[in-house]
Amino acid sequence: MVIKNITEDITPSNDWELYSLSETSRRVRMSEVGANIGPQGVDMRSLYRQAGVFSYDPGFANTASCESDITYIDGEKGVLLHRGYSIEQLCETASFPEVAWLLSHGELPTADEKAQFEKGLMREAHLHEQIRNFFNGFRRDSHPMAMLCGTLAGLSSFYGNQGADQRHKITPEEREESTLRLVAKMPTLAAWVYRYSRGLPLIYPRPGLSYAENCLHMLFSMPEAPWEVNPVLAKAFDKILMLHADHGQNVSTATVRMVGSTGVNPFVCIAAGVAALWGPAHGGANEAVLDMLDEIGTPENIPAFMKRVRNKEDKTRLMGFGHRVYKNCDPRAKLMRNICYEVLNELGIKHDPRLELALKLEETALNNGYFISRRLYPNVDFYSGIILRAMGIPSSMFTVFFAVARTAGWVAQWKEMLESKVGISRPRALYTGPAFRDVPEKEKQS
Ligand code: CMC
Question: What's the CA gap between 352 and 360, in Å, rounded?
Answer without folding.
Answer: 12
